[in-house]
User: Fold this.
Amino acid sequence: MPKDSGIGASSKRREDVRFLTGAGNYTDDINVHGQAYVHFLRSDIAHGRIKSVDTSAAEGMPGVVKVFTGKDFEGVGGMPCGWEVTDKHGAPMQEPPHPILAQGKVRHVGDPIAAVVADSLEQARDAAEAINVDIEDLPAVMDMKAAAQDGATLVHDDLKNNICYDWQLGEADDDKVNEVFANAAHVTTLDLVNNRLVANPMEPRVAVGEYKRGTDEYTLFTTSQNPHVIRLLMCAFVLGLPEHKVRVVAPDVGGGFGTKIFHYAEEAFCTFAAKACNRPVKWTSSRSEAFMSDAHGRDHVSKIELALDADNNFIGLRTNTYANLGAYLSTFSSSVPTWLHGTLMAGNYKTPVIQVNVKAMFTNTVPVDAYRGAGRPEATFQLERVVDKAARELGVDPIALRRQNFVTQFPYDTPVALTYDTGDYNGTMDKLEAAADLAGFAARRTASKANGKLRGLGVNCYIEACGIAPSNIVGMLGARAGLYDAATVRVNATGSISVMVGAHSHGQGHETAFPQVVADMIGIDESMVEIVHGDTSKIPFGMGTYGSRSLAVCGSAMVKATEKVIEKAKKIAAHLLEASEADIELKDGQFSVAGTDKSVAWGDVTLTAYVPHNYPLEVEPGLEETAFYDPANFTFPAGAYACEVEVDPETGQVTIEKFTAADDFGNIINPMIVDGQVHGGIGQGIGQALLENCAYDENGQLLSASFMDYAMPRADDVPFYAVDHSSQTPCTHNPLGVKGCGEAGAIGSPPAVVNAVLDALNAGGKAVDHIDMPMSPSRVWAAMNS
Amino acid sequence: MYNFEFEKPSTIADAVAALGSEDAQALGGGQTLIPTLKQRLAAPSVLVSMSGIAEMQGVCIEDDGSVAVGGATPHATVARDAAASYPALAALAGQIGDPAVRNRGTIGGSIANNDPAACYPAGVLGSGATIVTNTRRIAADDFFDGMFTTALDEGEIVTSVRFPVPQAASYQKFLQPASRFALVGVFLARFADGVRVAVTGAREDGVFRWSEAEAALNNVFHPDEITNLAVNSMNMIADLHGSQAYRAHLVNVMTKRAVQACL
Amino acid sequence: MTKVSMTVNGTAVSGDVEGRTLLSGFLRDHLNLTGTHVGCDTAQCGACVVHVNGEAVKSCNMLALEADGADVGTIEGQASPDGSLSVIQQAFQDHHGLQCGFCTPGMVMSTAALLKDNPRPTEAEIRKYLEGNLCRCTGYHNIVKAIMAASGQDASRIAAE
Assistant:
């Protein structure tokens, strides 16, 4: 029987009521008295030298408060990068400045040149049109391989070349790797592209900056996944403000998917300008502006080689990737193609020798950073595509080939720096085979054929590393931040609880799932527990929500803090019950003395904590505890996905007929929410595989600059998904045994879709090795007819 | 948006008068015009809404049997009210945009804009319809004049479009996956005196009649007659969503499907 | 400035607007009805869908002055005056048909328009109807399921529940 409350229950989401009635409080819903509006004048060319910016006409336009250019920020810091990658020769990455407003050069379409603050947004736009910008066009650096050549045009004149770093992980001895490949019975090689994507949370970014002269205090309302990170970066690296004078609030946030992790220039601008203009300053991104100012995702060009022995055991893997960073380093961009990507190249397999090579490139494009999965989809896609190709070349069953090479003993040290603590890849594959009715595929293929359609089946596995940690290790790897999280459990006198968490909920349902844990631990009703998040003035210093970390990391902090609360409450209960603390048990909200019928209710103990008349002298009054939790390791969710497609051989149109996911997330707090997370991830993965393509032309003009050309998945592009998460090997090192589920769908689904399309084509007599994503009808048709 | 005055006349005569002022522009449902204004790509001084003109609303059947659609009639109304009298036209209207867009967007606005990927131009040209304006009647063959260009004069209003009803007709639309405009759309109408095939989405200069296909189908009305015909891919649109060759191929496939649907 | 008057969720309202003021702007900025969201500028995302004279429209793609005299319904008017959720709203909560909530007002308003015309839509009809409403969180699974449930259909038969 499913539980109806607490851990394991599909509790309905309490936050839904405000969202369903139009009572949400998103950043654009916030208007501060007297606010002015900023419009950014953005570059319409990809690369150019700024010769002059004349704002004199604009300054006199109606309603204009102040016009800013790069000169106004010359004494101000730039946008920082939070991860220093060391290249394979031991040198630190090249780290160019990233000013709030362009200085000297513009480096991508959308690079802000000037900002106009005015009484109304339209007045700001009017004035921006009166700014006279003289820019000398420079050649756009677009192709990553060409950009890596000696003599290529430089995106940043002060750097020695366009290569941010040349990084390697795994086997450093090239001769050893070469030997493995030379001795292989079979080598499968694949060149592929992981397409550039735009995260496109439905809520565009917004920032409202406010400054109070009387107290010298700033408030920034912003669409962020991690308000404390924004406050720290903005105060310490950009504006040089004291953190205790700055409050960052991320209220209801309409989706993030990674792109709202980063500290953006517009946030710093609004905070800075609020003081400079002595007025609150608001910026609301339009969707068109979002396409050229939100950090993009993916954009890798890779060659992967898999070596197999005569028995089809994987014996070696080598990858060479060019990773596009765009024009500037976004907050965590450097970590994505390296520690979030190379470390996952072992996948679910016990390949003994692995070498990962990544050149990260500056180009005249929007910065690229983490997008749902961040590095792990890139790794999974390469690996699961090359394994599928190997199976086809060898004429073996792709599932059997995978099973044969699965890691089966845990803990397992991979050749690429990770230790998988637990997993059951065969067990999860068993679940998939049953849930997807793979046995019935042949009949379904026959039925499709009768309708003139080619049916294909694609299967793949994935593993991801979530809850990135521990801080001491990531620090050695270059992270400029800790990766713990924090929670404060504040018990009120009447027994209700406010839990202040460092994680941020922007769709994940923390407001429902986190109370399930605390309520379950104490044995009280979930409705007595409330989550407080998203406001640095209310919550302990937390690192926010990304990388499927919230429950595994922040949830663990919350458990630890709740344990401390219970420990203290037991002392109080022992005093009230005149018993030894060791004999006190807590169950269903009652403290009782073991082996007796003596008990005292949760609410009586909490009241006593705040009205400490009859109270143990050695215990402090009050009942509030904070815990910080720094995980011992990553968590390793893993799974197996199956996709069935039909291809229309006349048009190349692909339709997803069936999609099945079997995931191992360890223990699950709220199955309904977990299902929803997987659904959403699969939706985005199908989007990447079939629809989404952020494309530039050779001059650096963005071709997919709005929803008119960037194809978002719609309801009729996707089917119902079958999701099975009954395969559960709990995480061994966090108190809840949870692993994280937010990114799995987006990591696991693209290769399944691509594998399915290729299976359909090959089974239909079209020998096609690979089609790059998105597999648009046009590309599939071209591949069939090449 | 740049600011503008807004007028909502209730008669065609008042609308014509309002459109006489400098830089005035007619506003149909605004489903294309308003996004254009948001990008500041147009700067009308006055927007003259057609939505309040009762005589430009609705679908009716004329004495000669043709179906007349008022110039300010939303797509949703055509999808519903022409379903019995001209099902293929109703089906076309029901595939434009999405439900909310169809409640606002109008036939007059669509054909006056003549987006090269819009659906209505194919229906109008494929049907050999007559465009009725406040001053004259224009045959569909004379109306569409290349991308975003028509025979309309400054201030001239599409008051209605009259569609002769064919024996059989079909609109086959292959979606551009992002905008859901037509990557290629083919409207085929079979009249007693011949077949008309109009293609949208495919060519830079907008909707066109595929005369080779018409000739072949006038000979034998069967999809096989199309199989070996190749539309000239010279002026085909090439973009992110399809090459010239792919669009040319789709013209062939969609035409065959339209023929099949009419059998 | 021109005066515009309309009925919004049953209440007569009016305000002075410019020609360029959008209906979404009038609702959000003049009436403080911020449940209507703006997610794009090309009339595709549907977060701004409201009802005008009973029909779903994209309020960020309609001038406020075009709604002069109209009967406008927004997400704020969907629940009962006592706060209890409508059948559609309740189904969205019951079936986890929303995550971040940003597209949700438009989804609910589109669903209401769909079910008014088609009280028992098929899965395919629902998916087709939602062509103008983008959701980035749910992969649409639970939205479609919620709409089936809201129209009195058995949602339990859906894949792998």
